[in-house]
Each structure stands twice: as C-alpha cells, then as structure tokens.
TrEMBL record:
Residues 19-81 form the SLH domain. This is S-layer homology domain-containing protein.
Amino acid sequence: MKKFIFIYLILSTLIFAQGKMIFQDIPQNHWAYKAVENLVDEGVIPQDAYLFRGNSPVTRYEFAYDLSKALNKVNMEKANRGDLVILESLVYEFSQELNKIGFDAETFNGKIENIQNDIELLKKGISENQSSINELTERLKKLEEKVGD
C-alpha cells in the first residue's frame, strides 16, 4: 500500500509539474525566467530536459534554428504591438550576439517603424470608413423618410 501511495504522489507531482516550466538551473526570480518560460510556452525553444544551461554557448545552427522558429511563429500569428515590443527588447538585449552573426538592428528597427506606421494608417483608414458609413446611414434614413412621405 505504501508503494501505491508513493507512486501516486510521484505521478501526480509529474502531471502537475508538466503545466509549469521546471528548469532546475533557472530560479523564478532570475531576470531571464519569464523570457525563457514564454519561449518554451510558445514552442520556440523546447523543454526536453530539466536544465536550461543558460551560460552554455549556443552554436550558430541552434541560434538560427530557434530564431527561424520565432520568425515563423510571428509570420503565422501576425505579431501584435506587445509582441513587437518584446522582440525589440530582445534584439536590444542580444544586439552584440546578433551583430556577431550579421544581424542588422537598424534594418530591424526600420521594419518595426514601418509596421507601426502601417498600423497607424490602417487605424486612420478605419476611422475614415466609419465616418463614411455614418454619413451614408444618415443619408439613407433621410431618403427613407422622403419615400415614406
């Protein structure tokens, strides 16, 4: 009976723990914990072990693979403004590493600015369309009143 209770406790702990990120070498108060947790939750980086090994160097292959997964995710989900802010802060944080592999932060920042400008133009267009719709609705009401007379 003791074995059964012990096995039950172990299994229930494992099942409960699968909902949480459980890297043993990143405490929850670590500055990178939320970023790592977010990348694991989003499927950009796998959690296939209990160690993250945050101080280990990353090969260019690994970096390219994970960056490609992140960019594919952004393309598939069309990032919102919050995602762009996070990505921008990551680029800033890792700018030295990105520059070593030939990443151009100025081009990236230019693309972000263009996307933000596009968002503003779209908002303006929506506002103008809403004004036109309101105007047409009023004209339609006046026409219906005239026809009803």
